[in-house]
Amino acid sequence: MTNLFQPLTLSSGTTLKNRFILAPLTNSQSHVDGTLSEDEYHWLTKRAQGGFALTMTCAAHVQAVGQGFPGQLGVFSDHHLEGLTRLADGIKQHGSVSMVQLHHAGMRSPAELIGEPPLCPSDNEETGARAMTTEEVEQLGEDFVSAAVRAEKAGFEGVEIHGAHGYILAQFLSGKINQRQDQYGGSLENRGRLIRDIIDGVRARCSKDFILGLRLSPERFDVELGDMLAFTQTILSDGKIDFLDLSLWDVFKEPQQEEFKGRTLLSYFTDLDRGNVALGIAGKLRTPEEIRQAMEANIDFILLGRAAILHHDYPLQMQADHDFQPVTNPVSPEHLRNEGLGEVFVDYMRTWKGFVVE
Description:
Blueprint: E1 8-9, E2 15-16, E3 20-22, H1 38-49, E4 54-61, H2 81-92, E5 97-103, H3 111-114, E6 119-120, E7 130-131, H4 134-153, E8 158-163, H5 168-173, H6 188-191, H7 193-205, E9 211-216, H8 225-238, E10 243-247, H9 265-270, E11 278-282, H10 288-295, E12 301-304, H11 306-310, H12 314-320, H13 333-338, H14 343-349
Helix pairs in contact: 1-2, 4-7
C-alpha cells in the first residue's frame, strides 16, 4: 500500500494523518456576497468526516473583482469571517487539517459577474481585460497576503496560493499573456515576482506553523514547460512553502511540447531537488490502483477531485478495502445528494459531460 496511510509531517510542523487531500473544487454553493452557505459547509465537512487528512476549500477570491464564477466563496472581507470560522471549526472537529485556497481569476473573471472589465497583467483583447497598473499589482499581492491573515484569524491551519489554471498568477507567469515592462514583466524572474512576494508576505505575517502551499499548472494556459520547471525549482530551492500542488490534468500523461515527450510530465518535476517541500499531484486519479501507481512515482500525497465528489469517504473505503471499486459515471443526482452535494453543486456537475445521468 506504499505509504498512503502513513503520516506526513510538513516542514512547518503540521502532521497529516494520511496522504489523501481534498482537491480545491469549484461548487458555486456560496452566497452571492461570498459568505459561506449551509450546503458548502456540509459538502466540505462531510469530506473531513470521510477521512481526508487535509480538506481544502474551493478557490476563494481575494478581491471582489477577482471573482471567477457564481456562488464563489470569498475571503476578501472581514464580512466573511463568521462563516470561515465556522467552516474551519467544522473541518477540524473531524480530525482533518483545514486550508483555504486563495484565488483571483484575473482576465477569466466574467465582466457580467464583477460589473467591470476584468484585470490582467496586460491588455487582453480576447477577454476585454485591461492591464493593471504597478500599484494595482502591488495591491493584489497585499490582498493575497491579507486573505491569508484573515484565513488564519478564522482558524484555518493554512492556505494554498492558486497559481494554476490560467488564473491571474498564472497569467503573470505566462510570457505570452504578460507583456509588462515593469518589475512584474519580461524575464521569468520578473514574471514570477508576484508569487514570490505573496509567499514572503504570508511567511512574514502569519504564524511559523501556518501551512503554505502553491498550486501550479506545468503546461497549457499559455505557459511553457521549460519556464515552469525553472520557476518551480526556484520556489523549491527557496524552501518557503510546505508543499507544491501540481495540477497535471492526467498524472500519467506525457508533456504537450514535442521536445519534452518520451517520458511523463510528472517525471520532470520529481527529478527536481525539492528539499523539504512536499509534492502532491492531481489529475484523473479514480481507482485505488491508479492512486498506488501515482504514489510510486516519488511523490508525497495525492489530491482527489472527481473521486472525492463520488465518494465522500474515499480514504476510509480504501483503507478498509485496498481494492474497493468506486462507482463509475454517469451517476444519479440522488447519489450526489447522498454524498453531500447541494442542488446547485449537482446542477454544476451536470455541465461535466458524462458525469450525471441525463
